[in-house]
Amino acid sequence: MASPRLKFLPRHPFWRFVLGASVPAWVVSIVLYGQSAESGSEGYYQPKQPVPHSHAQHVGEMGLDCRYCHTTLETSNRPKATASVCLNCHKVPADDIPEFTAVRAEATGGPEVKWEKVHEVAGWITFNHSGHVKRGVSCESCHGRVDRMETTYQAEPLSMDWCIDCHRDPTPYLRRPDEVTLMGFKPPGGVRAHGQMVKNERGIDPDNGCVYCHRPRAGVPTIDDLIAK
Ligand code: HEC
Ligand code: HEC
Ligand code: HEC
Ligand code: HEC
Ligand code: HEC
User: Fold this and answer.
1) What's the gap in Å between 199 CA and the centre of ligand 4?
2) What predicted TM-score, i.e. pTM, was given to this entire model?
3) Test site for ligand 3: of 143, 181, 198, most ligand atoms within 8 A of the Cβ
């Protein structure tokens, strides 16, 4: 019996050879493409920073708490890292990598380091950062495993659905004040049971009415404006 003919393959042995020989090249290029997509950027947004500061090194390896550098977590809506704390450890200018001079300059009264913003909520949305931290929403639930990030990236979409999903069911994300900054937190009994305890203790109950986040104020589009767009 004749062998079944693979109609989609070229018939001539030469073209069959060319096709066969190119398969390893496809495999290699697909694998390389996959790797470059991974090492290029992570999460939703990962800008290159002017100083190659790594949370993986300072938090993951050294175990520093977020508050050590982000000193204004409870009071500011943009709790940026304070450059002067860097000099607690990076004492000797002679040991600096070239990019570090910008940090040293800020710490000694010069211009601020131009860190690229990783997260941004539009100005016409009511979003209170310190409010969330003070009510016990963990850093990890909005920023992901920062302790594993070499270069900081945006781990969550920051979309309206994302906000609303948590407001509907915030329980798994709630912690006591001294637990808010912990990464990979696993309370005995599980996160939901622990969060439920915090929710009850503190009476936490976020709203989802439109004006909760689209609060009417000067210079901000109204809900009607938004829907009309
Ligand atoms: C050694 C100091 C230091 C510690 C400790 C630290 N950070 Fe940072 N963090 C920085 C610096 C510097 C930046 C700005 C550069 C960057 O984005 O990586 C930053 C940026 C960030 C950003 C991005 C801000 C933006 O632009 O949107 C987040 C989120 C963040 N840190 C979260 C954390 C969390 C969560 C912890 C604790 C688990 C933590 N950081 C601990 C120094 C620190
Ligand atoms: C608690 C001590 C400590 C603090 C605070 C600290 N660092 Fe570091 N940092 C280190 C150590 C230790 C290393 C590893 C140095 C090495 O491997 O030679 C390091 C490494 C670095 C590196 C990598 C380059 C290098 O020299 O190896 C950068 C960049 C850096 N830190 C930036 C910062 C910035 C920016 C801040 C402040 C927001 C900061 N560090 C705060 C201890 C600290
Ligand atoms: C409810 C979600 C949420 C929680 C919880 C949260 N963040 Fe954020 N964080 C955001 C969003 C959204 C932004 C951008 C805010 C904006 O655009 O005004 C932001 C901005 C930041 C910034 C940028 C400040 C700057 O330089 O502009 C840092 C640093 C930061 N967060 C660290 C933390 C740390 C540390 C914790 C835990 C103590 C934490 N965040 C908890 C959502 C959150
Ligand atoms: C992971 C959970 C979580 C996410 C994500 C989240 N929130 Fe909240 N939000 C809360 C909790 C918990 C409260 C506190 C409610 C209370 O105090 O009873 C809160 C409170 C608020 C408040 C009222 C607090 C105040 O101080 O005015 C606003 C406004 C708000 N959130 C807006 C947002 C917006 C906008 C987003 C998305 C960009 C967002 N939230 C994302 C959990 C979350
Ligand atoms: C928990 C916070 C929250 C609540 C509650 C909320 N929104 Fe939003 N809304 C947002 C955020 C954040 C954005 C911006 C999303 C983005 O930038 O992708 C947004 C965007 C929008 C937009 C799109 C505007 C545009 O130009 O893309 C419309 C329309 C809108 N909201 C209407 C509503 C209506 C109607 C309600 C009530 C049923 C509502 N929102 C309730 C947080 C909220």
Assistant:
1) 14
2) 0.90
3) 143
